[in-house]
Specification:
alpha/beta, 9 strands, single chain, Rossmann fold, five-stranded parallel sheet, globular, two-stranded antiparallel ribbon
Length: 230
């Protein structure tokens, strides 16, 4: 299916824009993160379609998608999983959490305390989690895309520095323009449901494109002779 990065980006962007109007720069950065194997943090006020944007990206990519709604009462085991006792067998069995997916949406990540936020640290850095003393590898590709409301909103917890270091980008989602709002009304003013998106790519195509990215050669910067400006 892969014809190159430009064709791939056009397909993904075209499919996502069936449900998202505007935010072209944010979508472009998300595609860069996919190719770079980097996690993304989206920040913006409630109601700016941050969650819808990531869900639409997962649908267009054809990836296994899981959404975790972060709340103050969430536990780390609700994210990565835990050991569950099986009475019939008389032993414990691993119950995998929603983090075992290709694309994980950590929705409103700053509404949960730091202890729960840190449950993603190993997963984001090592692409693995430890449950009951055993290491479990996450599927490939694996990406975390988190949303958060601005810190001045009531009931939020700032992300610790160790957590923010795991993200490749922090993208700010702003209000749409007047023209984009009019386009939304024209397109969805009479609709009660979101358009159904089709998978126009796959995890295998993404992994193959990443190999091409690794093959890109970057020449060292040219240094001018002394006494001459570069």
């Amino acid at each position: 299916m892969a014809k190159g990065g430009k064709d791939w980006a056009a397909r993904i962007k075209g499919e996502v824009q069936k449900s998202i109007i505007g935010q072209d720069e944010v979508i472009e950065r998300l595609l860069v993160a996919l190719l770079s194997n980097g996690h993304v943090l989206l920040e913006g006020l409630p109601g700016l379609a941050k969650t819808l944007l990531i869900k639409s990206l997962g649908a267009a990519m054809g990836l296994e998608f899981e959404r975790i709604q972060f709340t103050p009462d969430l536990l780390p085991s609700d994210v990565v999983g835990t050991m569950v006792f099986q009475p019939k067998e008389g032993n414990f069995r691993v119950h995998r959490g929603p983090v075992f997916a290709n694309l994980v949406l950590a929705d409103e990540i700053n509404r949960a305390p730091a202890k729960v936020q840190s449950a993603l640290l190993e997963a984001m850095q090592e692409r693995q989690v430890t449950i009951g003393g055993e290491t479990h590898h996450l599927p490939k590709p694996f990406l975390v895309m988190a949303t958060q409301n601005p810190l001045e909103q009531e009931g939020t917890y700032p992300l610790p520095e160790a957590q923010t270091d795991r993200f490749l980008f922090k993208l700010l989602v702003d209000y749409p323009s007047e023209q984009e709002e009019r386009a939304m009304m024209d397109r969805w003013g009479q609709l009660t449901t979101q358009p159904k998106l089709e998978a126009v790519s796959s995890g295998e195509e993404l992994l193959s494109l990443r190999e091409k990215v690794d093959d890109v050669h970057l020449s060292p910067p040219w240094s001018a002779p002394r006494g001459r400006p570069p």
